[in-house]
């Protein structure tokens, strides 16, 4: 009956000797079998002369003997032709009529394709993580450049415009129309408001306090700005890590906190938010 099973099945005694194999196991171990000599399970699985051990190849016999129940492990096997394969090994205790431990029954299933797929998925995941980190760094650099350009170009132009308007206003003749003076005052007010908005945008793009003082200080600053806009109080708990975190880590954590607070304002009916910073060494 067991010869019709696709999985490799072996009955192994407490001395690691293979007492019975189905057809799939015999085909897998072809070239190793010699009816004049006993065949051991570790010869079939790893072509070695000692039992399996260690974390890489935990011995199913020892695991079952210690636990007294069925165990599952994954082993890297090499066929007689040297081909590497991965097998999921399910080992169950084999008990005698008096209940004593006599060995194990092993069922081995080839999971090489699944293992290869998992390894490829892991590689793709690592590549995606690296790409995401790279994109985040690029985005952060672009934010810095945009904030710098707003400061160096737009900010300075607004300052110059405000100065020019102030000069024009002071040089207006006293007999100038009241409406003209009113328009100049409105223009000056508009320039001041626009400059303030530009400063807010620059701080949001890249808050200087993050570079100069660190993550916790930046969160305190942002919490105050956020509270003014949303009327939601922000409590920041924690101390600045010593030494400071890497710049890319600080950037990532600050952006995460920003996004979380944005979601609170959009979706929660909260009056207070607590942001806690903990560093585990």
UniProtKB/TrEMBL annotation:
<dbReference type="InterPro" id="IPR050482">
    <property type="entry name" value="Sensor_HK_TwoCompSys"/>
</dbReference>
<dbReference type="InterPro" id="IPR011712">
    <property type="entry name" value="Sig_transdc_His_kin_sub3_dim/P"/>
</dbReference>
<dbReference type="GO" id="GO:0046983">
    <property type="term" value="F:protein dimerization activity"/>
</dbReference>
<feature type="coiled-coil region">
    <location>
        <begin position="114"/>
        <end position="141"/>
    </location>
</feature>
<dbReference type="InterPro" id="IPR000700">
    <property type="entry name" value="PAS-assoc_C"/>
</dbReference>
<dbReference type="GO" id="GO:0016020">
    <property type="term" value="C:membrane"/>
</dbReference>
<feature type="domain" description="PAC">
    <location>
        <begin position="67"/>
        <end position="123"/>
    </location>
</feature>
<dbReference type="Pfam" id="PF07730">
    <property type="entry name" value="HisKA_3"/>
</dbReference>
<keyword id="KW-0808">Transferase</keyword>
<protein>
    <recommendedName>
        <fullName>PAC domain-containing protein</fullName>
    </recommendedName>
</protein>
<keyword id="KW-0175">Coiled coil</keyword>
<dbReference type="Pfam" id="PF08448">
    <property type="entry name" value="PAS_4"/>
</dbReference>
<dbReference type="GO" id="GO:0000155">
    <property type="term" value="F:phosphorelay sensor kinase activity"/>
</dbReference>
<dbReference type="InterPro" id="IPR000014">
    <property type="entry name" value="PAS"/>
</dbReference>
<keyword id="KW-0418">Kinase</keyword>
<dbReference type="InterPro" id="IPR013656">
    <property type="entry name" value="PAS_4"/>
</dbReference>
<dbReference type="InterPro" id="IPR035965">
    <property type="entry name" value="PAS-like_dom_sf"/>
</dbReference>
